[in-house]
Amino acid sequence: MDFLATRTRRKFLFFSLYLSEGAPIGFIWLALPTRLRASGVGIEDITWLTAILVLPWTFKFLWAPLVDLLRTRRWNLRHWIVTAQIVMGLSLLPLIWLDPVHSFRALGALLLVHAFAAATQDVAIDALCISTTTASERGQYNGWMQAGMLIGRAIMGGGALVMGQHIGETAVVSLLVLITTFSILLVLMARSHGAEKQITTEAGHLRKVWESVKTACSQRNTWLGLLFALLGGAAFKSLEVVYGPFLVDRGYDKTTIGWFSAGPMIVAMIVGSLVGGWLADRVGHRRCVAASLVYISASIAGLAVSELAFGSGNHLLVLLAVTAFGIGVFTASSYALFMDISHPLIAATQFSAFMGATNGCESWSSYVIGGLIKSQGYPVAMLVLCGASLVALPLLASMKLTRKTPHSRPSTSYIE
Q: Are residues 182 and 220 in the same domain?
């Protein structure tokens, strides 16, 4: 069965690939730190480990061009994905018998290898999606991809902590390895499509890649996309960092926050991703991005105002869940938009640059909101970051996008 042959199969393939990608993210960034802390590992060592492991994701755009350049008819994006997943699985396998406390350095080295492989897999998956789909359907694909990511994170994040008490940590890690690598079979059953079939000779491919890079750098859409990625998500990316401490400061206990994060927040994001992807393909990716950005800013502003007016209460949780739905819509539609303005031949390079700018947005907005909370309090800080996000709307309006028909086939370029 060719999992790239039809829309339904492609959705299942990309959902599965992101499920495989999200599972270790949930384990490494939530379940493992909790286990380490419960075993007596110092918080400074835990935060050092997580800080190191995020670096490959932050700087993946530096080696993403290799995924574009090192492609032939015999070695394509599917081979990149399979190889990366094998390395991901092999680097996690020793965790079955490794004592994370007494072998902390070895654990760190294995997880760093895993992080490089996972970031590379992410680059190749996104490039494969761009090269095998049309602009009129990418919203739905991104919705399913984000749903897979969030489900994987939930299963092997908070879910791993619960399962560990019943089936043991060895079984949990075994399940993690299985979820991380099962989608290899789906990729192996797929066939080359789209831009990969256009690769004739290595020299010809390198020339085309170089020409595409020069074209992309000269286009206004590329720079507008980078600026939008750097600004657009400021309101919600900063909120995602501080909403836990915000709820603690408003009197909520850690158990309540944990269940709320793993339940209503995740569910709202998944529903938002699926609805947003479906809606974006019908009303247009740009319109959906703009509308969801306004929605998010309004809901966060409502959160800030209601906190000022009414103080602590369940209304805060309701508004956070409402915001989470908008985050899902924005993520699915904005990623589809970035795919629209990425050239298939340099999809790994160009889309990774947009994702790097998105990570940069999270970095600067988190720093800014921290300083504002300290000096002005949560409500003012939230409102300022909402304003920063809305500043990005003119950038979105300035992009020139080619209108695609629902049945248009993937081409070598979606940029003007």
A: no
